[in-house]
Design goal:
Blueprint lengths: L4 H16 L3 E4 L4 H13 L4 E5 L4 E4 L15 E13 L8 E3 L4 E10 L6 E3 L2 E10 L8 E5 L2 E5 L2 E3 L2 E3 L5 E6 L2 E5 L2 E3 L2 E3 L7 E7 L2 E10 L2 E2 L7 E2 L2 E3 L4 E6 L4 E3 H7 L4
Parallel strand pairs: 1-2, 2-4, 3-4, 4-6, 5-7, 6-8, 7-9, 8-10, 8-11, 9-13, 10-14, 11-15, 12-16, 13-17, 14-18, 15-18, 16-19, 17-20, 17-21, 18-22, 21-23
């Protein structure tokens, strides 16, 4: 039997389309194991995937999914639609909530990430946050609540009520080595407490990279008296760190300005 070249082409295109569609999964409230499994399946899927959480749902993470992480690392093209749900960590071990790997493209929307015990987000990929709250987390070994080595774009989001315990490294509620865009976003009511001599600490953003803002609000980010002189509650630019755009008045400094303010330059 002869098979035409056109038929082979149509079958090949159909197979390619099926492989690139990805998956859409709904995860019921309180089904944390289901959420973890959905992420693992999405990582294994070649196409763009969507995970939808229950409306006003709650997902409690008691154990590590991977070493130092409460959710599996995100490795593909994934959207998590939160529907006003909360993902909360109750781990007895130091662990961040989620890590986005290099090459991954991730969108989180309408979601709260709370109570990471070693930060909340570690981003090495392309991360978009839409109406996301990052709250109530702390650090014990890490140097940031949100660590960015890739690209983050946040819209109508907030980073608030987190606790930063200063360690022997540079630290910030947000520690940026990559590129961050912040539109109509608030970073507020975070607290940094000094424990060791540290090179630099920011209650808002410690910035070694690029920060662009449109209506960013930085408010009430407290610093303890034990912190070193090179510290600031807003955005502190270090090295090649640069800021552009609009934010709260007086909330951006560079390391040289801070040193001069305390008479150490």
């Amino acid at each position: 039997m002869k098979i035409s070249a056109n038929l082979i082409l149509l079958v090949s295109l159909a197979s390619l389309g099926a492989c690139s569609r990805g998956t859409e999964v709904d995860v019921a409230s309180n089904d944390s194991k289901g959420l973890i499994e959905a992420i693992r399946n999405a990582n294994a899927s070649p196409g763009p995937d969507t995970i939808r959480l229950a409306r006003n749902g709650l997902y409690i993470l008691n154990d590590e999914a991977e070493t130092g992480l409460l959710l599996p690392s995100l490795r593909g093209d994934l959207a998590i639609e939160g529907n006003r749900s909360e993902i909360r960590g109750y781990s007895s071990k130091p662990a961040a909530i989620v890590q986005i790997e290099e090459g991954a493209k991730v969108r989180l929307e309408n979601l709260v990430l709370a109570e990471g015990t070693d930060g909340a987000i570690r981003n090495f990929g392309d991360l978009r946050l839409e109406q996301v709250g990052i709250v109530d987390s702390s650090i014990s070994k890490a140097s940031a609540i949100v660590l960015n080595h890739g690209h983050i774009k946040a819209l109508d989001s907030e980073i608030a009520y987190n606790l930063l315990l200063g360690n022997r490294r540079d630290a910030g509620t947000v520690l940026n080595y990559g590129d961050i865009e912040l539109d109509r976003t608030r970073i507020h009511d975070n607290r940094a407490i000094g424990r060791y001599p540290t090179v630099a600490v920011a209650g808002g953003i410690l910035n070694f990279g690029s920060v662009k803002a449109n209506g960013l609000q930085l408010e009430n980010n407290e610093l303890s008296d034990e912190l070193p002189s090179l510290s600031f509650g807003g955005i502190l630019n270090i090295g090649n760190g640069r800021f552009s755009g609009s934010t709260s008045s007086g909330s951006v400094r560079d390391a040289r300005q801070t040193a001069m303010l305390v008479g150490n330059f």
